[in-house]
Amino acid sequence: MPASKPPLPDAEPPRKLLRLGQSAPPGKAVGATAVINSTKHIQAQAGMVRGTRALLRANQKGGFDCPSCAWPDPDDERSSFEFCENGAKAIATEATRKRADAEFFAQYSIAELAALSDFELNDAGRLTEPLLLDRDATHYRPIAWKDALALVAEELNGCDSPDQATFYTSGRTSNEAAFLYQLFVRQYGTNNLPDCSNMCHESSGAALKMTIGIGKGTVTLEDIENTDCIMVIGQNPGTNHPRMLTSLEKTVKRGGRIVSVNPLLETGVKAFAHPQKLSGLLGVATPLQSLHVPVRINGDLPFVKGLLKCVLEAEALNPGTVVDRDFVAEHTQGYEALIAHVGTASWDDITTQSGLTETQVREAADVFINARECITCWAMGLTQHHNAVETIQELVNLHLLTGKIGRPRSGLCPVRGHSNVQGDRTMGIWERPPAPFLDKLDTEFGFKSPREFGYDTVEAIEAMHEGKTRVFFGLGGNFLSAAPDTHFTAEALRKCRLTVHVSTKPNRAHLVTGERALILPCLGRTEADRRGDRPQFVTVENSMGVVHSSEGKLSPASPHLLSEVAIICGLAETTLGTSSTVPWRVLADDYDRIREHIERVVPGFDKFNVRIHQPGGFYLPNGVKERRWDTKTGKARFTVNELAPLQLEPGQLLLQTFRSHDQFNTTIYGNNDRYRGISNERRVIFMNREDMVDRGLKPRQPVDIISHFEGEMRTAELFLVIPYDTPRGCAAAYYPEANVLVPIKSTANISRTPTSKSIVVTVQPRAS
Ligand SMILES: Nc1nc2c(c(=O)[nH]1)N[C@H]1C(S)=C(S)[C@@H](COP(=O)(O)OP(=O)(O)OC[C@H]3O[C@@H](n4cnc5c(=O)[nH]c(N)nc54)[C@H](O)[C@@H]3O)O[C@H]1N2
Ligand SMILES: Nc1nc2c(c(=O)[nH]1)N[C@H]1C(S)=C(S)[C@@H](COP(=O)(O)OP(=O)(O)OC[C@H]3O[C@@H](n4cnc5c(=O)[nH]c(N)nc54)[C@H](O)[C@@H]3O)O[C@H]1N2
Ligand SMILES: [Mo]
What we know:
The chain is of the alpha/beta class. It folds into three domains: 50-200 and 420-613, Rossmann fold (3-Layer(aba) Sandwich), CATH 3.40.50.740; 202-414, Dimethylsulfoxide Reductase, domain 2; 653-765, Barwin-like endoglucanases, CATH 2.40.40.20. It is 35% helix and 17% strand. The protein has a six-stranded mixed sheet. Strands 25-32-29-31-30-33 form a six-stranded mixed barrel. A five-stranded parallel sheet has the order 12-9-8-14-15, sandwiched between helices.
């Protein structure tokens, strides 16, 4: 090795403590504090004028889609403030006046940047021009767009096979960019299209597709706001989908009940003070949840099995009143097998494995059974476990058995994360594309797309690690820090010849790179996108299948930024040259032309360019809403899901990794987690008090967390212990700091989603 080679930068954020403050979690969410916080972030980042200008256009008809979560906007009346505290933070972080420009990258070496915290890296500001980290270089330096794209094209064309390249997508990418990206990748010759969904709602998509024939939710916002009962299971809406609280409040005010199933009593579902009402600002709050079910981590499958038992019992007592027999007969298959299986599940197993008493399960069952209509909402608390698909299938069983699906105000609602993660999949970002989609793509563009399935996220990391990958390309996201097993993923990325990231802000994936690395800076949602001498808009699909437009108005952070669409078209043209059948340059300058192609390839987009101008957009077709099931037999399927608890050794805990109130995934806005009473620290582990006593641990004691998987151990150093209300045997720490603990091989059955919510750990006091 040449002596001049710089040392490898650390893949983890620095293991340094701040100054932890702790208080009791508040009794209600939002209210004036949230408004003050939004204002603070806007003021500090974007300045009041630019920031307010941006905020007022968020989620308005004709405005831009808030880049934070995928919660839908009201179909009818919208207030002039269709954003929340965390939407404001997402907008502020994008509309910031700070710049990570060429001067910044000339000043700081990679090693110095790696010593910054995730908060500091993001706080450096918006990226302003393309940057190259050359072989053995210590600093990124500017590179012209043309040269940057030529470099990527040269590396791609230098691969022995197109499968030596991998193309990741994060869920902020617009429909137009996503459609062109998958088209380019398939014309180039591979289906290696892993995306953030693989780490997120893949388990939901898999479970729903297999049972009800569509991998998406089945309800609308109107259904949510008018139903009798909402079960929020494995989701923390107060932090991650705050606008959902407005809907939950409406449900409650109309007499609906909310059951929260969660190892933590999350503040967001306790009570809500509406920030746009005077009463809310004065602190008057509406209690939200009527029942909290403190399930153990990964205790949901036994819990739902308990509900099924109660449903069958109630049906036996009052035949024909609980099970929807007509629905079951007409629309489903597999009923007898399910009934036989539920009959064999013992209360003993259900209670020990869920950590709940029989009474607690029965209380929840009563709410479900007595509600005429019910919607179940869930997110990562269900999807990131080894048996996530089975757990979600069990929820489907519950809704099928009672006929609470495919009719107004009843159904299933996987609450999506990234604002366009659902749309990206609709546009064909999928390593396992269905043949009919590829057939249409081939007909539309006159080429033969590859049919062999590509890598999902975990497979992509494994392939890189085995040296099978020469080029890694990331359209958005922060692959290094979002992925499991940080050090393994870092080793994997380092084996590539070239790693490329299309990004808006600096992140740690820019520092842990292949032999050479590029950062290609792009426009964000809030910014005006002028191409072909006129303003362009893009489209997105929210969690409830509504496609609508998004058009930013702010002046771009730098004149050198390109839209994602323009970057993909430029790269495709440079890589594929005259061999491509696609008029890339025409598409780059007129997004209507892209939508014409989408209309002909993707079902549900008829008259796309007309309907997209309807205020609020349009709903994509969803057969389940009319009780049509796109399964092999045309019926919805009951499934038998065996209980399969993780076996813990004495002393071991189950650790979940979750989000604080001050982050969007790997983007850290601040070091507080107000709703859990934590300030100024992220390196904490929340533990049950008795579990602490058993281990002789004191509050705030520094510990290392060690994960155990198939004889392997991984260590996350320096966390402070926080006593917290959570069932025995359960613990929690923040993502991405705890990602080092998630074993690469620990994935969910079928969906292959990393098991970031059930990591087997022990806790070791640090020598002081
Ligand atoms: N402000 C903000 N908004 C976001 C994001 C963000 O980071 N910040 N991220 C976006 C993305 S990509 C996503 S996917 C969503 C994520 O939204 P969430 O899924 O709400 O995110 P997490 O913080 O991972 O929270 C998981 C919740 O599940 C609970 N939980 C953990 N394990 C279990 C379990 O075994 N059973 C049950 N019943 N509950 C469990 C946790 O206690 C926690 O309340 O949010 C999106 N919106
Ligand atoms: N341990 C653990 N790991 C997890 C999770 C967990 O709960 N626990 N959650 C998983 C989930 S649900 C998800 S979705 C993934 C998220 O994984 P990713 O989507 O890969 O990660 P993000 O942190 O959302 O990506 C942030 C970066 O995106 C870039 N960016 C922001 N806006 C734009 C834009 O408009 N265009 C482009 N091109 N780039 C932009 C910025 O440079 C920013 O640094 O992480 C997963 N990882
Ligand atoms: Mo996500």
